């Protein structure tokens, strides 16, 4: 395939330059998009399309959000959500990494566990909510149980893909040079698997936030989700919308951080894999 | 550096009304953040009905840019392309392009016959006629045995045959080929070159064939237009006075073939070193017929 | 022989796990974990019969409607936005925000805006599950090979025909990846929208069992949800294999080189 693309770079470079040469940078258009969105949100209740009691105007919600930012209680809730998110994600990654390596490196284990994994993986984590309530009530453990269950599969599958992707020739080379099992894991398997692992962690991070908020919202575990539920049942509608915007921003922040971390960790890996492999 | 301002550097032109495809003072500048890049400076030449002309030039000489301007895929900065006297502003119906990247130009989700059929289907050709055109085109490129395969199941050379069949079935008046054989192996390449000669003779279509391979351009063409290095002008436009019956072994071992090869090679070397034609020249190396 | 071997590979671990479960509950069921026999009996008693029609099927119906709605809307909107560079640039930050927003928070919002009814639950599923489809469609359309676009242009393939024969097929691999996420989010939202605000449906039933400490019934409900997830996943994989046969073949050829 390389011969086909060999004459492409000059053309691609020109195309790229032409693209970035458009009148306004993308950031400008993005800003227009955000302002338009907020404008519509502001107008919908103002024009009475939806009652302001159900959908307060954007300005009111953003004011409430800014007011929240000064409150300790808000940051405590954010901290609780993030704590469950972090512990759950870390535990799931560790568990999935160890099990994934053990299973992935043995073709016998891969075949023997395949049916069980394919059966357990699609089970929705929220099915475990009643069990979590029964076992842990409204404590943080409830959140953790759901988060770990959901993230575990995301990461495990990626680790298994990654180990399966290890180059046979590289493995045979390592063996013929007398690498020990540990050395083979460290120097051949782990580097190959790393991009897959990072994809798994990135996907897992988003899923972990979803389940942290779900557990708080439904079960009442401490955190932002519980605050949303309280605001809603207490009729503090603008406050509820402000908290929802806050969770969205938290989600955006997590996505951004995960992408930066992924880029940093894989910088030496450059073009190993296209984004679409995820 | 000497520029072409003191004369329109150009290839052979024909009296008005005789040319099928005319390129007049074509210029293409890419506007970029880092300043303007002049890919094509000033190109003028004509293609008569039924001609097979090869465009050859050093790498980076704007061959692909030129071809895309002619195909109506890119707008020219100035100058114009005329097809049958009509100015080309978008891809014209009477033109078909065979791209270098056959793997990306054929749709991998369509089977071979469907790939060939799609442009016809879209042009509203009735079903029975479509089937005949597709069958004939696949027959012509020697692929009538694989209509139900997917392109990616075929070898590179066979994929490019599918792309040629698609172009042929479209029944164009002008067939534009952008380094179509750059990515196939030498043996396949020879076969495909003969295939092009055959298709051209059989259908009487006008062919503009872009290549960076000097031998290929001489072997295939009735005429070879040599491009300068970027910003591109026509370096020379020569007539290939080889017998019309070409044969991979015999034609290539003719003394005349070697002479032409030497000449084109020398011109390209000059072009690479930045030599630019000082004036319009349409040289006929031997007595024109 | 070979068939026997692969069957034993498929069944060995599940059988072992069930045996382990039987052994562990042999001395009598604990409060939290029923014996397999108990669970089986409860499962049939609870779900085969009236509940099938009052709770399971309505839930599944809402799920199917919501997911189909999300896919259709997501792909249509994605095509519209994805094919225009300015539209992409304008919508990107807003769409990224909604993608990052944990979908369950939409439940209280839609309860307010729509009220508590079937429409609200379907709206919750659509508004939460649409984002992966929408964003993947946009990405799939954006990443289309320029040579394919030029081919379409030079052969006069334009308008709806171009979308049908070039743009959509070319974006399918990315769109299918989005649909996979859409399905799991849809299932989550179906369950918790019923847990949060409902008087019927699977999610509601399971929470009721848990609140009344009917533990075997609760487990049987978890099994039902698991089965729905597994069945959906199998259907999806079956469709994906067919839709993406060309893509998988292409990848295989490319990787072999």
Automatic annotation (TrEMBL), chain B:
Keywords: ATP-binding, Nucleotide-binding, Transport. It holds the Pfam family ABC_tran. It comes from Glutamicibacter arilaitensis. This is ABC transporter. The keyword Transcription does not apply. The keyword Ribosomal protein does not apply. GO terms for molecular function: ATP binding; ATP hydrolysis activity. InterPro entries: AAA+_ATPase, ABC_transporter-like_ATP-bd, ABC_transporter-like_CS, ABC_transporter_ATP-bind, P-loop_NTPase. Residues 21-254 form the ABC transporter domain.
């Amino acid at each position: 395939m390389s011969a086909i693309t060999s004459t492409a770079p000059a053309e691609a470079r020109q195309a790229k330059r032409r693209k970035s040469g458009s009148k306004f940078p993308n950031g400008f258009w993005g800003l227009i998009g955000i302002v338009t969105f907020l404008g519509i949100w502001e107008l919908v209740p103002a024009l009475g399309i939806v009652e302001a009691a159900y959908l307060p105007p954007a300005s009111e919600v953003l004011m409430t959000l800014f007011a929240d930012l000064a409150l300790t209680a808000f940051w405590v809730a954010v901290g609780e959500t993030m704590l469950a998110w972090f512990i759950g994600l870390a535990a799931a990654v560790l568990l999935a990494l160890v099990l994934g390596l053990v299973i992935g490196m043995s073709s016998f284990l891969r075949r023997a566990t395949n049916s069980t994994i394919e059966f357990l993986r699609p089970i929705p984590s929220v099915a475990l909510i009643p069990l979590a309530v029964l076992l842990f009530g409204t404590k943080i453990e409830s959140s953790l149980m759901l988060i770990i269950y959901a993230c575990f599969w995301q990461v495990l599958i990626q680790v298994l893909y990654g180990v399966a992707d290890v180059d046979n020739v590289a493995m045979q080379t390592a063996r013929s040079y007398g690498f020990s099992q540990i050395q083979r894991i460290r120097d051949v398997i782990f580097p190959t698997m790393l991009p897959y692992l990072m994809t798994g962690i990135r996907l897992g991070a988003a899923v972990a936030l979803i389940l942290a908020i779900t557990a708080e919202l439904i079960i009442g575990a401490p955190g932002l989700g519980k605050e949303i539920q309280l605001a809603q049942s207490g009729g503090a509608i603008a406050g509820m919308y402000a908290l929802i915007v806050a969770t969205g921003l938290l989600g955006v922040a997590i996505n951004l951080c995960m992408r930066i971390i992924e880029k940093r960790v894989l910088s030496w890996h450059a073009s190993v894999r296209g984004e679409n492999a995820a | 550096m000497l520029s072409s301002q003191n004369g329109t550097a150009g290839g052979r032109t024909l009296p008005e009304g005789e040319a099928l495809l005319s390129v007049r003072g074509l210029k293409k500048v890419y506007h970029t953040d880092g300043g303007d890049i002049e890919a094509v400076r000033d190109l003028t030449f004509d293609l008569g009905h039924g001609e097979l002309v090869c465009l050859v030039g050093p790498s980076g000489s704007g061959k692909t840019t030129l071809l895309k301007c002619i195909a109506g895929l890119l707008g020219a900065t100035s100058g114009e392309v005329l097809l049958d006297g009509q100015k080309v502003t978008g891809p014209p119906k009477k033109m078909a392009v065979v791209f270098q990247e056959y793997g990306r130009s054929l749709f991998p989700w369509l089977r071979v016959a469907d790939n060939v059929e799609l442009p016809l289907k879209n042009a509203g050709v009735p079903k029975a006629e479509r089937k005949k055109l597709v069958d004939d085109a696949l027959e012509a490129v020697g692929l009538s045995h694989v209509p139900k395969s997917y392109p990616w199941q075929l070898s590179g050379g066979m994929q490019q045959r599918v792309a040629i069949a698609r172009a042929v079935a479209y029944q164009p008046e002008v067939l534009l080929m952008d380094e179509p054989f750059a990515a196939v192996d030498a043996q396949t390449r020879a076969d495909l070159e003969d295939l092009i000669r055959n298709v051209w003779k059989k259908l009487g279509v006008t062919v503009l064939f872009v290549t960076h391979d000097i031998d290929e351009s001489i072997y295939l063409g009735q005429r070879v237009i040599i491009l300068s290095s970027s910003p591109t002008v026509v370096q020379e436009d020569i007539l290939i006075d080889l017998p019309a019956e070409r044969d991979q072994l015999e034609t290539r071992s003719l003394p005349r073939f070697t002479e032409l090869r030497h000449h084109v090679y020398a011109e390209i070397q000059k072009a690479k070193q930045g030599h630019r034609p000082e004036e319009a020249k349409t040289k006929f190396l031997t007595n024109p017929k | 022989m070979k068939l026997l071997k692969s069957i034993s590979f498929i069944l060995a671990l599940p059988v072992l796990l069930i045996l382990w479960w039987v052994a562990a509950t042999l001395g009598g069921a604990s409060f939290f974990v029923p014996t397999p026999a108990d669970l089986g009996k409860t499962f049939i008693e609870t779900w085969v019969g009236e509940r099938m029609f009052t709770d399971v099927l309505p839930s599944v119906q809402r799920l199917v409607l919501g997911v189909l709605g999300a896919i259709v809307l997501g792909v249509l909107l994605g095509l519209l936005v994805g094919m225009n560079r300015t539209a992409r640039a304008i919508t990107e930050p807003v769409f990224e925000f909604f993608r990052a927003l944990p979908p369950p928070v939409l439940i209280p919002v839609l309860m307010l805006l729509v009220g508590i009814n079937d429409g609200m639950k379907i709206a919750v599923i659509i508004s939460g599950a649409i984002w992966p489809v929408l964003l993947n469609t946009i990405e799939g359309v954006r990443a289309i090979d320029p040579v394919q676009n030029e081919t379409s242009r030079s052969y006069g393939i334009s308008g709806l025909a171009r979308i049908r024969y070039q743009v959509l097929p070319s974006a399918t691999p990315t769109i299918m990846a989005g649909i996979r996420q859409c399905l799991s989010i849809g299932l989550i939202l179906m369950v918790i929208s019923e847990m949060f605000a409902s008087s019927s449906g699977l999610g509601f039933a399971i929470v009721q069992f848990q609140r009344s400490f009917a533990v075997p019934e609760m487990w049987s409900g978890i099994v039902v949800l698991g089965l729905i997830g597994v069945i959906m996943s199998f259907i999806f994989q079956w469709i994906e294999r067919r839709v993406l046969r060309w893509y998988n073949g292409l990848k295989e050829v490319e990787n072999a080189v």
